[in-house]
Write a structure and sequence with these properties.
alpha/beta, Rossmann fold, 4-stranded antiparallel β-sheet, globular
């Protein structure tokens, strides 16, 4: 069985007496599309911080591409092909959209290569995301939905192997959420990336991803196919409130 692209083994994060992440295991393979859900305060974003090197775990091991990166800083994770977005888009508001993406290409992505042409030019990345006409506009003038797309563009500029998306659908309309889910699927299918996606828009996420991990009070309480997780009694009780009807399965 091939080694996982991203492997978190018994990862814990403690802040004094508070245990934010409690012995979480997660393995994600090449080109896999995985969702992470759970109630507020479940430890999802803190766990993401460890997967991207923003925060060192208090215990456990982190491997990317087989290399042990436990305790390494964020730029080392980026050099190994990990890129991420944040709950609140972190864009350079006074720089143009094109300059924002070029920043990603020239800094985080400068030492990495990718087989897809879309990773080689800021305008190509913006075009791929549907932001071509916004290339010369200040990032701060874009709508929140477009700023979220732009931050994905900055992450793609890092030429990643794995993309971590933290609530990229937050605050979006229903149609914008659907478009974002379609984009995430395209990024995996067309660019060949592994994607790990945290989201509270549970139905949209479950209809898009192949696997769902559920965190509750810092622990992983489920990990499996969306339809199985959607009717898992522990997940329903801890987070969903009722089983989620996912409708027809997507191809």
């Amino acid at each position: 069985m091939p080694e996982a692209l991203v492997s978190a083994q018994r990862v814990s994060v403690r802040f004094g007496g508070l245990v934010a992440v409690d012995g979480v295991d997660l393995e994600v393979g090449e080109r896999e599309l995985v969702g992470v859900i759970g109630p507020n305060g479940a430890g999802k974003t803190t766990f993401f911080h460890t997967l991207s090197g923003v925060l060192a775990p208090s215990a456990g091991r982190l491997r990317v591409g087989g290399d042990d990166l436990t305790g390494k800083p964020a730029h080392v994770f980026a050099a190994h092909g990990v890129a991420r977005t944040f709950q609140t888009p972190r864009v350079f508001r006074d720089m143009t959209a094109e300059e924002n993406v070029r920043f990603g290409l020239e800094f985080a992505g400068r030492l990495r290569k990718h087989t897809h042409d879309a990773f080689d030019d800021a305008r190509a990345i913006l075009g791929y995301l549907g932001l071509a006409e916004a290339s010369g506009l200040p990032a701060g003038s874009l709508t929140p939905a477009r700023q979220r797309l732009l931050e994905i563009g900055m992450a793609l500029g890092a030429r990643p192997r794995v993309l971590l998306l933290d609530e990229v659908a937050a605050g979006l309309t229903e149609s914008e959420i659907a478009s974002t889910a379609q984009l995430i699927r395209r990024v995996r299918d067309e660019l060949g990336l592994a994607v790990i996606w945290i989201e509270h828009a549970v139905r949209a996420l479950m209809q898009c991803v192949e696997r769902v991990a559920v965190l509750h009070q810092g622990r992983k309480i489920a990990d499996g196919a969306p339809r199985d997780v959607a009717r898992d009694p522990a997940v329903v009780e801890a987070y969903l409130g009722q089983e989620v009807n996912l409708g027809e399965a997507k191809a």
